[in-house]
Specification:
The protein is mainly α. It has helices at about 10-30, 35-55, 60-75, 75-95, 95-105, 110-130, 130-150, 155-170, 175-185, 190-215, 225-235, 245-255, 260-275, 280-285, 295-305, 315-320, 330-350, 350-360, 365-385, 385-405, 410-420, 430-440, 445, 450-465; strands spanning about 310, 320-325. The chain has a domain at about 75-330. Strands 1-2 form a two-stranded antiparallel ribbon.
Length: about 475
């Protein structure tokens, strides 16, 4: 983090102005704010931060260098987003996603659908170590099933995200689960065991909330399951062999294959299965009387890259039978790039360091130290727009403070995960919030009220710290 001569109020100027502009922008555009206007507001926020920097003689080149460094760190995420868009396209026209919806509607009773979404997403995320992969595979299927059953899309997304981030926190294969103990100075499995103290109660409460939601939610009368399944069968060739593709993708990830490679394989396999099982559909999409190699190539390539719409008379399935391909991910990528510009300038002018230092000074007690860590993580998720920075920076800053208070390092690593990892998805311009919103096709503000696990986690960690429940001291580890 860049050292700075900024005063706290000066460091907060860009944030206060940004929050005001974003709030007004969302008020004007509502759910359409992510279409582009929020992105420009983030650039305006970066411009305000740059003005503060110029006033303190910080060179323009230094700010651009900070932006470039931030953008470089998101290159992997951007490529994954493009691959997720292409995978969604071929998994639609191949019948894979419709098959998941078809069988899911028959197996999942509406009253147990929401808790089942939490549990299954948790299992997949623990197995893969990735909330992103979970959303891009089983999450997309749950969105389709939930919408067909008449559940609000925000509610379904909240269930998927809650489960996915539980697994992301607790899986030894998760990058954040490895990063947090590395920053705090403890080992991986000590970190995971210590996290159960706050994570399991939060998860149980989350499940109870979704069970109650499922029992009390009035299913839309239009969501006639038999009509929906019949419409799917009329449009697609549905068989169990289609599940070979998602099973193979999950297997690749379990074997620690790089996500980009696994998603590329899933995209190409989806295209192959479309050719093998959905030729009548490909013919209909092409608008031709007969298919040749060139027309098949064009249909499959369009599914990978741009929007594909499959016609159906069923009103519920009209929204489900649309895939936007790689092009559908571009607004999300645009948002990430603009967020990284704002975060890069804020770091270059030293504003993030100043805000973090000020939070550290508030930690005069053990509870104050925990509270300052939570506030620092959430602030960095909000300003730097990246969950890794929200773990690395507070981890680096607070490690000595925890040691000076006699606290074992796993206290810090757990708090980093409870407040850094899980809250990232609640912020629309954070890389995680933008990703989940883009992949699941739901505005961040729509799923925030239902992402129960994510907003309860930092509250739970503060409650545990406040009552001093099983707070491990360094002397207890000797």
């Amino acid at each position: 983090m860049e050292k700075t001569t900024l005063k706290l109020w000066q460091a907060l100027i860009p944030i206060v102005i940004l929050i005001g502009m974003l709030a007004y922008n969302v008020y004007v555009y509502q759910g359409d704010a992510l279409g582009g206007s929020n992105q420009f507001v983030l650039l305006l926020g970066a411009a305000v931060a740059a003005i503060v920097g110029f006033a303190h003689k910080i060179p323009y080149k230094k700010m651009i260098k900070g932006v470039a460094k931030n953008l470089e760190s998101t290159s992997g995420a951007i490529l994954i987003l493009l691959m997720v868009g292409s995978l969604a396209g071929t998994w639609l026209i191949s019948g894979i996603i419709p098959a998941m919806i078809y069988y899911g509607l028959q197996l999942l009773n509406p009253s147990v659908f929401l808790p089942a979404a939490v549990l299954i997403s948790s299992f997949i995320s623990i197995a893969t170590g990735s909330s992103w992969t979970t959303s891009a595979t089983i999450g997309i299927a749950f969105m389709g099933i939930g919408e067909a059953l008449g559940f609000p899309v925000g509610m379904v997304a909240g269930a998927v995200i809650s489960g996915a981030y539980f697994g992301d926190k607790m899986s030894p294969m998760s990058d954040t689960t490895n990063l947090a103990p590395a920053m705090a100075g403890t080992d991986l499995f000590t970190h995971i065991r210590y996290m159960t103290i706050t994570t399991l109660p939060t998860y149980i409460i989350t499940l109870i909330v979704f069970i109650l939601m499922g029992l009390n939610h009035q299913i839309n009368g239009d969501a006639n399951v038999s009509e929906i399944t019949l419409a799917i069968k009329e449009t697609f060739e549905i068989n169990i062999w289609l599940f070979l593709v998602p099973v193979a993708v999950v297997a690749l990830i379990l074997m620690k294959t790089e996500p980009l490679i696994a998603l590329l394989f899933g995209t190409l396999a989806g295209a192959l299965f479309a050719f093998l099982y959905q030729m009548p559909l490909l013919l209909e999409i092409s608008g031709l009387e007969r298919l040749d190699f060139q027309s098949i190539y064009r249909v499959l390539m369009d599914a990978i890259t741009v929007e594909t719409v499959i016609k159906t008379d069923n009103l519920i399935l009209q929204d489900l039978f649309v895939a936007k391909g790689m092009a559908g991910m571009l607004p999300t990528i645009w948002l990430i790039i603009c967020a990284m510009v704002f975060g890069g300038v804020m770091e270059a002018i030293g504003a993030l360091a100043k805000i973090s230092d000020s939070l550290l000074k508030l930690a005069t007690s053990i509870f104050g130290l925990f509270a300052s860590t939570v506030a620092s993580c959430i602030t960095l998720n909000f300003t730097a727009s990246d969950q890794y920075l929200a773990i690395v920076v507070p981890g680096r800053m607070f490690a000595k403070a925890y040691k000076d208070k006699g606290l074992a390092p796993e206290n810090l690593s757990r708090t980093l995960e409870d407040s850094g990892t899980v809250t990232s998805v609640l912020i629309p311009w954070n890389t995680c919030g933008a990703y989940q919103s883009g992949v699941l096709g739901v505005d961040t503000l729509s799923y925030i009220p239902y992402a129960v696990f994510n907003y309860l986690s930092p509250i739970t960690t503060l409650v545990v710290a406040g009552i001093r429940f099983k707070i491990k001291m360094i002397k207890d580890t000797k």
